[in-house]
Design a protein that fits this description.
The structure is a single chain. Among the domains are: 207 residues, Rossmann fold; 98 residues, D-Maltodextrin-Binding Protein, domain 2; 87 residues, Helix Hairpins; 46 residues. It has 640 residues and is α/β, with parallel strands linked by helices. The protein contains 19 helices and 20 strands. Helix 4 runs parallel beside helix 5. 41% of the residues lie in helices and 20% in strands.
Length: 640
């Protein structure tokens, strides 16, 4: 730091105790942590002795609780080796060039933390109050541009060189909203004086501290006097619901609750829908985070999640909702209803039932035939057996005890079979059957579905090495508007769309009904992630809002809001759907539910009609044959 010249800045050295006292006070205020790192930057001060004395005083103070890192504004050779976040900054400066140079260095280090406590020591003395006010305001404004709010500036006036004053800016005092530097107040003063030691006869320097405007603390209050909080958001149900105007949604309800508690006025900017599924980039002009990066907004909403780019550009809130990206496909169609009356039993059971009917008919016919109890044919006996087995009326009065005993056994057999059949039939008719549902990626690939996915979701497959991911990387279709792609499922059964499960299942506008799509189970998710708010990097309200989010999450309000939104959506569907529709609670039987029985009757009628036509044809053929044979015989007789 140059040659040591103790006499050049002897007057500055007299204020070292003041500086130490202010440091102990303001570095411990509000957010400072014990054992925290203090980065001390020295500006273009021409002498090193003064700087070394300050370091010596800070380091040897009996109340010392900080780790010190001296800097001089030059580029750090290996910034990555210092990873602890700075909790305090100190800059000893002469002019504005010092400020810009050293703040840029702070920002370049991994220790950068604009929420740290900052002390600016001005070595320049001021001749007039106006000159001081302008310079101090410029310093505050320069630091505000970098998001540094917790700043205390130490300075001296030329007219009172024995006095060091401290001024600070209260961002939210007197209805201020941390947008402009307009509430600068003096909060402390240190006066150095000389006092004669009566014992030694030597003059000694003494100092005394005065404090002002204590009532204006804290700098970040609990109530913000209706200050604006600007929010850029996507319309992304169920988190943000609306159209041209934001109406409701889980995140909207949460941020409104927080704003009400903190007395903050919310201002919403709706982001273009094209950015919802556009490729995430760090472009501060057209990228997804551009509003926050350009400081047009304080935070972003819309079911967002952390990613490698967001971690570098913005500050996330604590997570408050777990969502996942899954595949949604068309729901399986109804199975063919004409089979309803036949699927009561499986094929083996039907075979046994039919075999039992035939065997019983043969047995009954054999007994009746050999005992000469009936003159009817086997068809009649078979029909009697069927009527008894199905609980229908059939007139038959056998005389033989063996036949009566057999019919009693057959009756009880029919009672059990008939009860089982009708019980199962009611269940089948009132609970529609579906075809096999596609519910895994293996089934979807085998079915030859077209996979539509947005560019950001594809990034998750790039990091995987399984065969499904490799297949999707070469067999997918990019989707620019996820809602439009999702709507395709209703008409195209060969489409699978990757999207947020919460968005798919909680869409209040019902552009596709729950009965039209099916989302894969969690075990087949693309990725599971936590939903967060994206704040401007190192936003000073983030810590307070995180506390509110944690309270809301622990109270169960998010769960309640989600259930309320789902119940409202269900009511809308119930009101707008047909009472006999596929999704209604009550099931009214229609023709298609029992068309199998009608088809069976038609099949019997058609078969009987065909047999009748065959018999009629045979009758006429035989009749004609007899006529022909009769004529031939007559001709033969005439010849004879």
């Amino acid at each position: 730091y140059g040659e040591l010249k103790p006499l050049a800045y002897e007057s500055d050295l007299a204020f070292t105790p003041c500086l130490i006292n202010f440091t102990q006070k303001y570095f411990h205020s509000e957010r400072a942590l014990r054992g925290s790192l203090v980065i001390i930057n020295f500006g273009k001060h021409p002498e090193g002795f003064f700087l070394l004395k300050i370091l010596e005083a800070l380091n040897e103070d009996k109340n010392h609780t900080f780790g010190l890192m001296p800097k001089d504004g030059r580029w750090h050779d290996d910034p990555a080796k210092v990873i602890d976040k700075a909790q305090n900054y100190m800059l000893i400066m002469l002019d504005m060039d010092d400020l810009r140079l050293n703040v840029d260095q702070w920002k370049s280090l991994p220790t950068w933390n604009p929420l740290a406590q900052t002390i600016i020591v001005l070595l320049k003395t001021f001749d007039t109050i106006k000159e001081k006010d302008e310079f101090v305001r410029r310093v505050f404004e320069e630091l505000l541009a970098d998001g540094i709010l917790f700043v205390n500036i130490l300075f001296r006036m030329t007219s009172t060189l024995n006095k060091m004053a401290v001024e600070t800016w209260f961002p939210y005092y007197d209805k201020g909203c941390a947008r402009f530097v307009d509430n600068i107040y003096k909060i402390g003063e240190c006066i150095v004086s000389e006092k004669m030691n009566r014992l030694t006869g030597i003059s000694e320097k003494t100092w005394k501290i005065y404090e002002f405007n204590e009532e204006k603390y804290p700098k970040i209050p609990k109530i913000f006097n209706n200050c604006p909080l600007i929010i850029s958001t996507f319309v992304w149900e169920p988190f943000v619901v609306g159209n041209e105007k934001i109406e409701t949604g889980l995140e909207i309800l949460m941020i409104k609750t927080i704003a009400q508690q903190m007395d903050i006025k919310l201002q919403f900017n709706i982001i273009n829908d094209d950015l919802v599924t556009a490729k995430i980039s760090g472009d501060n002009q057209t990228g997804i985070y551009s509003d926050v990066l350009q400081k047009k907004a304080d935070l972003m909403l819309g079911g967002l999640y952390e990613n490698p780019i967001s971690r570098k550009l913005v500050s996330p809130s604590i997570p408050y909702y777990q969502d996942d990206i899954t595949w949604c496909v068309a729901k399986a169609k109804f199975a063919q209803t004409w089979l309803n009356v036949f699927i009561i039993f499986n094929l083996t059971t039907w075979f046994i039932i039919i075999f039992t009917l035939v065997a019983s008919s043969v047995f009954l016919y054999a007994i009746a035939y050999f005992t000469k109890q009936t003159k009817e044919n086997f068809t009649w006996v078979f029909l009697i057996t069927v009527t008894l087995s199905t609980g229908q009326y059939g007139h038959y009065w056998p005389n033989r005890s063996s036949i009566r005993f057999f019919l009693i056994i057959l009756y009880f057999y029919g009672l059990h079979i008939n009860t089982a059949y009708h019980s199962s039939l009611i269940n089948v008719l009132t609970n529609p059957r579906y075809e096999d549902q596609i519910k895994t990626m293996e089934m979807a690939i085998e079915a030859g579905l077209t996979f539509e996915v947005n560019v950001n979701t594809m990034e998750f497959f790039n990091s995987k090495g399984d065969w499904i991911s490799k297949y999707l990387l070469s067999n997918h279709k990019l989707c620019r508007n996820i809602d439009k792609c999702f709507k395709k499922i209703k008409k195209d059964r060969k489409v699978a769309v990757a999207l947020s499960r919460a968005h798919a299942l909680n869409n209040p506008f019902r552009f596709i009904e729950d009965e039209d799509f099916f989302c894969f189970p969690v075990s087949d998710d693309v990725v599971i992630y936590s939903v967060v708010m994206m704040f401007r990097r190192f936003h000073h309200l983030l810590a307070d809002i995180n506390k509110k989010i944690r309270t809301i999450s622990e109270s169960g309000l998010l769960t309640k809001w989600q259930k309320d939104s789902q119940s409202e959506g269900d009511n809308e569907v119930e009101d707008s759907s047909d009472a006999v529709g596929h999704g209604s609670v009550k099931m009214v039987l229609r023709v298609e539910h029992v068309e199998g029985a009608f088809l069976l009757v038609l099949l019997g009628l058609a078969t009987g009609f065909l047999v009748f036509l065959v018999e009629l044809s045979i009758f006429y053929i035989r009749k004609k044959y007899k006529i022909i044979m009769k004529r031939r015989n007559e001709k033969k007789n005439i010849r004879k």
